[in-house]
Amino acid sequence: MLTISLIWGIAVAICCCLWLIIGIRRRRIGEPPLDNGLIPYVGCALQFGANPLEFLRTNKRKYGHIFTCKLMGKYVHFITNPFSYNTVMRHGKYFDWKKFNFAVSAKAFGHRSIDPSDGNTTENVHETFTKTLQGDALNSLTEAMMENLQYVLRPPVLSKTNSDSWVTEGMYSFCYRVMFEAGYLTLFGKDLTRQEAQRTFILNNLNNFKQFDKIFPALVAGIPIHMFKNAHNAREKLAEALKHENLQKRDNISELITTRMFLNDTLSTFDDKEKAKTHLALLWAAQANTLPATFWCLFHTIRSPEAMKTATEEVRKALENSGQKISFEGKPISLTQMQLNDMPVLDSIIKEALRLSSASLNIRAAKEDFTLHLEEGSYNIRKDDIVALYPQLLHLDPEIYPDPLVFKYDRFLNENGKPKTSFYCNGIKLKYYYMPFGSGLTLCPGRLFAVHEMKQFLILMFSYFEMQLIDSQVKCPPLDQSRVGLGILPPTNDIDFKYKLKH
Ligand code: HEM
Fold this sequence. Notes:
Layout: H1 2-23, E1 34-35, H2 45-50, H3 52-63, E2 66-71, E3 74-79, H4 82-89, E4 95-96, H5 98-109, H6 125-133, H7 136-153, E5 167-170, H8 171-188, E6 190-191, H9 198-214, H10 216-220, H11 229-241, H12 244-247, E7 250-251, H13 255-261, H14 272-287, H15 290-303, H16 305-321, H17 337-341, H18 344-357, E8 358-360, E9 362-366, E10 370-374, E11 377-381, E12 386-389, H19 392-395, E13 424-425, E14 428-429, H20 447-464, E15 465-469, E16 486-488, E17 496-501
Helix pairs in contact: 6-13, 7-8, 7-20, 8-9, 8-15, 9-11, 11-14, 15-16, 15-18, 15-20
This protein binds protoporphyrin IX containing FE.
Binding site for substrate: 107, 289
Enzyme class: oxidoreductase
Keywords: Cholesterol metabolism, Endoplasmic reticulum, Heme, Iron, Lipid metabolism, Membrane, Metal-binding, Microsome, Monooxygenase, Oxidoreductase, Steroid metabolism, Sterol metabolism, Transmembrane, Transmembrane helix
């Protein structure tokens, strides 16, 4: 027994020495300061994961505006000076912005690589996204979403029998349910042949989506989905519903999906199930951030009487100017993109809610060795290293946003009530001050639609319902830090509220 322990002890000691001699990276001249962390491979991932904002602030104080950390075998150069963001974008030719995203998508959703250079498909997904989420396509998406939101919100919640009584529900569950159903119908259309079973179908998808989404951070970290039996089943069921034969039964499918269903991709080696998994990736991109973001918009507004009053007034005026009245039985409300874009108070509320809840990581992989020239100096970057921006650092910087943790509904408004676009750090105007949708080549292609759908949700909620928090003094729930890097963080606990039809 003693001999076995001794052999194990020697083996571990040799491995540690080998790791110290060959495995550990040493900083070369011209490279940013380096933190290898204490644990082989893992590096600083545990400290980063525990509290990314604090970890980055501490390292910034220790090393300066740029430093390198080893995270799960990768060397990540963090750029923390917002004035350098612009310069980083200008080094685009040295970065492969797709590599990381394609790899994560394949790992999480279970399809092969969608990088055309790997030969499985000819589709330029980035082009497809821009064409089918912006421009003319945005009109039909926005129209469909408004119709679907009203389809979801009006019955049975607004049925005459319970129109006088309050309904109590968790606000996050409510936002999740309403936005998921309306969003799913908007992307994948309605099954007209089995209308009565529609809601059960969507609810099943919602439960599967929740189960799959819960383990998403683990999948991004590289843990295989087979370790999570229930989430794996949930993913397969979600994909099954998105197979061509099932989508064909649905009406009014968005261009985002039809373009890809009927893509003239003769070189594609994807079968139907694998294509369905790429549709699932889009469902995730469209919902995973929008659902918590919608909650934060509603929660912060309800908690601030002034925000609620000003927003409701803006909505009332917009409906009046468009000659429409709220009515349960009448025609659904419809607002054009122009009318939606002319609502600065709702815009400011949405921006402020996203500023407070967003924790995305903007990542670019270095295609080759190169020198990164920044405001504060030049730094050598090695091939395959990652350059990362963490916008939460600037979103919560008291120099840029005084009282950064306080929700101020009018923070993004000027004195004249028009949108405010000038923000300063140390007296100098910033180009990048608001980045929940990413930046440069990885800027979210669905951002315009996302803002429209959140606005539509708020418009309908403020118009149709009276709402109250069950505990009017309730504290703001903490952000769920386990999802840092993925975008908008959900609350760690739900908040009860009650709602009833406005008379
Ligand atoms: C509040 C809502 C949303 C937020 C905060 C958000 C944020 C982001 C961010 C930060 C990225 C870039 C990720 C990276 O750096 O690689 C991204 C990518 C993406 N988003 Fe969004 N998003 C939202 C809603 C939407 C919606 C509604 C859609 C579609 C209907 C959408 C579609 C996409 C797609 C397709 C990509 C991948 C783009 C590519 O790889 O070329 N997003 N989103």
